[in-house]
Amino acid sequence: MNSPDRAGPARTRVRWDELDLLRGVAGVLMVVNHTGYKWLNAEQLADPVVSALVFAGSCAPVVFFATSGVGHGLGSGSTRAPDRLGLLRKVAILLAADALLWLSPSQWYGLDFLGFIGLSMLALDPLRHARHPLRWATGGIVLVTILRFGVGEAVKGWPPTPTNVALRIILGIDPVDGVSYPVLPWIAYGLTGFVVGAVAKDARAWIDRRFAWVLAGLAVAVMANVAATRVLVATGRAIHRWGYVSLAFYFVGFASIAAAIAVALIAARWGGGRTRRLLDLPGLASLALVPLHYVVLAIVAAVLPLAALDRYGWLAATLVTLAVSFGGARAVQTAATRAVAARRAWFGPALLGAVAAAFVAKMVSAAAASPEFVQLGIVAVGQLLLCVYFALDGARPAKAR
Fold first, then answer.
1. What is the mean pLDDT of the chain?
2. Sign of CA dihedral 11, 16, 20, 25
3. How far is 213 from 219, CA to CA, in rounded Å?
4. Residue 89's pLDDT is what?
């Protein structure tokens, strides 16, 4: 790929309609996974169909991280001056939303889903302005793989010393309490998405002309990674991703990215307007979906006899949860867009004050051992307010221009 001409006209982010559909696929996977693990017992999860769907849903973070990378890749080659302050504001908002989830009087540090997306932006955003972004992103994937599953595996056999303990944590070998997504190897999925976005922005016509070949290539990628996983499992390797990512799951992640992209492409081309409307999940709505779906999960769990759910009852309840969660997330985006468009001078400070109040309420409720639904409500409100603030922050560059 040729490097961008720095003397030419400014290049802007390319619109790729499949990106919102890809977010929708990730959202569906997340909800399916959580309805399985939060509602069902071991006996219910033993159903092969339920088990397969819930396992597929465990790939939701992979697809979400890749989707974030796709968005950055679509803006690669940009000749606009980097907005570093704007980037730091967005990262801070995501870290604050993440902290609301885990912060308590007994836990003062952590890193979960939203926080990892924020931190990954620090790695992905500079690539948009790099002279050879595809080379850097591809090299990053290779480097992460070597460090985590090459150097990391060698470090496992070294005698324990303070230096080695720190190195094992950095390499993602030893899990850290409160850290769900260590940088290695999770950042590789964001870099993979970046490569996809950087290629897609200049290949729209080519993809349309050779659509069958694109799908065939994605199918080969899925099968190759699944085959690698099966070989590893046959040799006794586990498929594990909680705090510590096994090599077997690492390959599963790449298979899930290829499969999710194929679903998004097929939905965009042949799904029809209704399918696209059901699956479409714009950027801010995808953030709002995170707290909203937890609230819907809790409400459904309170009104349904979960222990009596069979396969079809679980599927029906999951579809209802998806519909309500997606609809609510889109409604939040619409409301946020309208609120930001009003451009009230007091709106930003008022949002920050309300978010600060949510943090105080979360700490007080946690210290008082308040019921779980009370803490869930506080977290959801605080995170949704931060979603609105994210939209307000995103409007600032446009306003400044």
1. 90
2. negative
3. 10
4. 93
Per residue in 106-139, pLDDT tens?
Answer: 888 999 999 999 999 999 999 998 889 999 999 9
pTM here is 0.91
Report the alpha-carbon distance of residue 212 to residue 288 in Å, rounded: 34
Residues 6+ apart with CB under 8 A from 165: 174
The residues, ordered by sequence, that sit 6+ positions from 359 with a Cβ below 8 Å of its Cβ are 99, 100, 103, 382
Token duo for residue 236: 């006794």
Report CA Rg, the chain.
21
For tokens 């498929």, what's the residue?
A: 239
Closest CA to 156 of 238, 239, 233, 148: 148
- Rounded distance between C-alpha atoms, residue 144 and residue 151, angstroms: 10
